[in-house]
Amino acid sequence: MGSRRGTFATREIIAQAKGNRTVFQIRIHGRGGQGVVTAAEILSFAAFDEGRHAQAFPSFGSERTGAPVVSFCRFDDRVIRTREPVMEPDAVIIQDVTLIHQVDLFSGLSPEGYVLINTSNSFSDLGFGDFFDQYQLEHLMTCPATDIALEHLGRPLPNAALLGGFAALTGEITYDAIDKAVREHFTGPVGERNAAAVKAAFDYVASKVKETARASTN
Amino acid sequence: MLRQIEGSQAIAHTVALCRPEVVCAYPISPQTHIIEAVGAMVKAGTLAPCEFINVESEFAAMSVAIGASATGARAYTATASQGLLFMMEAVYNAAGLGLPIVMTLANRAIGAPINIWNDHSDAMAVRDSGWIQLFAESNQEASDLHVQAFRLAEELSVPVMVCVDGFILTHAVEGVDLLDQSFVDSFLPPYEPRQMLDTKAPVSIGAMVGPEAFEEVRYLAHLRQLDALKRIPEIAREFFEATGRDSGGLVRPYRTEDAETVVVAMGSVLGTLKDAVDARRDLGELVGVLGVTSFRPFPSEAVRDALAHARQVVVIEKAFNVGAGGVLSTDIAIALHSEQTLLRTVVAGLGGRAITRRSLEKVLVDASRDELAALTFLDLDQGAVDRERALMQTSRGAVSGKASA
């Protein structure tokens, strides 16, 4: 894990940048049936496994297949007392790219925030114009998670794969913790296949992060 | 055993450790996950002996619980919102008969308009029924309270409702230190009914009581609730000594010692409220929180003691007495019995409206400047209200105009 973590910001560096603030908050947008709520829960299991306090909860919409769904996850070295929805996320994961023009996906996202979008297009091809000009380019990423899921699961369920991508992009959680949490949530062969999707997405995003870092140092 | 677990699953786990012998319920969001999990344990044989009874309605669920409890079985059910209203007649009967049923209420708004999200309207609708009502602040407390609830119910022959904020707690995944069987067995002795239906020694329970004794029956029920006021903190103390966890009790003050303004609330909003209070404290403002865990019986004396030094008391209410004002506020006002203390009511979080730390901080700031009105609605969209009022005025005019023409 050491070599993997060396390629992107470690928790300590992020903690310094954030001052005393130790909480990290994630908002996941997707559609009913894509495992949006499950993704937040798995993320919380992974953070818990790393010894942190973690909280995951859905946006409590009436669950209907295809309807926009939001879930939240926050983890912290301190006890989490708040119950408010995540309104100022440190990271936003978009499981369904068709939501881009329908839902206010990036509300409250800080300029240092991370964005991970499930699409086979590159970030610059998504037509955001100058929306992300104030943001850090290396924190904005796309990942073809549905393609990866189709390859490894045979089903278009991008949630687990995106968590692998999230680990690679942010370094806020280890690949090992995500891998373990996914295997515990989806047991048996389904667990194996999801874990393979996590690995593929992690490797994909990790290599893109390296590329971006190389480009910015050149 | 500390586990990252959904609130509903943690509650179901704890309920099973309490060895209920009859569980009956009708599914309604957001209670469903709890009952599904208990049902699965009964089916798998990990909760045994226990009979899980599928019923056709909430009215039947409470009626079956009453029947089971009356024959000496430990009975459990869970519901929410309209489900609670549908079983309301039986809810009163359970209390009137003194049957120690424990019920989880996954707090949810009441329609119309239909709304599946959280507030406390359902619990408030049965506050006079004679049930003990305990409100959980977190999933840890929600889980722990169930063990205390069975103990309390059976000691006093009073049914106990554990109120857990729907979705906000029931569907939240977080760390919960789960109890183990040996602890629960030591804390909660087997149920020994005071009186039971038995074919070998037949008795009638729930027979008609006329005007000559009905008041006495009600007063006796009140006295049992007053007994509960004494036992609730004792049981919580015993629980604390065994587990180190501060779950249950009557009220829970937070940074109130020197507070000029104290905010009173129940349930999961207390967590966000404590964060808001810490933020204002960092700026030197003298604010505190009083969590009310036991809503019925209402701990007037404990509330009065905790609020004795406050100049201003702000009650955050997740329910609203339409046409009158706050529900909890009324009890607080009676408990305070003081004209010196400013009492303010803030209705918040109705129908699942998110209660944010930012909005709560604004309440605290407004309160400290004496700018908080006697009754306010948190984050109210005044524009929408005004537009709707204007529309109602015009449409009424149009109708009456047509009638006169």
Folded structure, characterized:
The complex is a heterodimer of chains A (218) and B (405). By secondary structure, chain A is an alpha/beta fold. Chain A has one domain: Pyruvate-ferredoxin oxidoreductase, PFOR, domain III (Pyruvate-ferredoxin Oxidoreductase, domain 3). Chain A has 7 helices and 6 strands. A 6-stranded mixed beta sheet of chain A has the order 2-3-1-4-5-6, with helices on one face. In chain A, helix 4 runs antiparallel to helix 7 and helix 6 packs antiparallel against helix 7. Chain A is globular and about 45 Å long. Chain A starts with a helix and ends with a helix. The N terminus of chain A is likely disordered. By secondary structure, chain B is α/β, with parallel strands linked by helices. Chain B has 2 domains: 236 residues, 3-Layer(aba) Sandwich (Rossmann fold); 132 residues, 3-Layer(aba) Sandwich (Rossmann fold). Chain B is built from 14 helices and 15 strands. A 7-stranded mixed beta sheet of chain B has the order 3-2-4-5-7-6-12, sandwiched between helices. Chain B has a 6-stranded mixed beta sheet with strand order 9-11-10-13-14-15, with helices on both faces. In chain B, strands 1-8 form a two-stranded antiparallel sheet. In chain B, helix 12 links the parallel strand 13 and strand 14. The N and C termini of chain B lie far apart (76 Å). Classes of the chains: A alpha/beta (218), B alpha/beta (405). At the A-B interface, helix 3 and strand 2 of A face strand 8 and helix 10 of B. Strand 2 of chain A pairs antiparallel with strand 8 of chain B, so a sheet runs across the interface.
Structural domains of chain B: how many: 2
Assembly form of the protein: heterodimer
Evaluate the radius of gyration of chain A: 16 Å
Radius of gyration of chain B: 22 Å
Give the helix level of chain B as a range of percent: 40-55%
What is the name of the CATH superfamily of chain A? Pyruvate-ferredoxin oxidoreductase, PFOR, domain III
pLDDT under 50 segments of chain B (min length 5)?
401-405
The main sheet of chain B orders its strands as 3-2-4-5-7-6-12
Q: How far from one another are the termini of chain A?
A: 26 Å
Average pLDDT reading of chain B: 95
Q: How much of the polypeptide of chain A forms β-strand, as a percent range? A: 15-25%
Indicate the structural class of chain A.
Answer: alpha/beta
**Silhouette of chain A:** globular
Number of strands of chain B: 15
Overall CATH architecture of chain A: 3-Layer(aba) Sandwich
Strand content of chain B: 15-25%
Poorly predicted regions of chain A: 1-18
**Separate helix tally of chain A:** 7
How many structural domains of chain A? Answer: 1
CATH topology of the largest domain in chain B: Rossmann fold
- DSSP helical segment count of chain B: 14
